[in-house]
Design goal:
Helices cover 19% and strands 36% of the residues. The chain is α+β, with helices and mostly antiparallel strands and 64 residues long. The protein has one domain (4-55). The longest helix is centred in the C-terminal third of the chain and has 12 residues, at 44-55. It is globular and about 30 Å long.
Length: 64
């Protein structure tokens, strides 16, 4: 299993996720995805889903 993944949405790099002790931490590559910056996801796939929802204009819950 890899320790980092590039997340792309509609051929645009949204950011990268890096494996952390609690899951995968998101680092935004574009201002569009700043809302996800620093959030921890259970999997890289969960981070990708969140980035796709954000790009589609869906409201995302604020991480605590």
């Amino acid at each position: 299993m890899s320790d980092s993944y590039v997340i792309e949405v509609s051929s645009q790099t949204a950011g990268i996720v890096v494996r952390d002790t609690g899951g995968y931490q998101f680092f935004a590559a574009s201002h569009l995805f700043d809302r996800l910056e620093g959030q921890i996801f259970r999997s890289a796939r969960d981070a990708e889903r969140a980035a796709r929802r954000l790009a589609a204009g869906q409201v995302l819950p604020i991480a605590s």
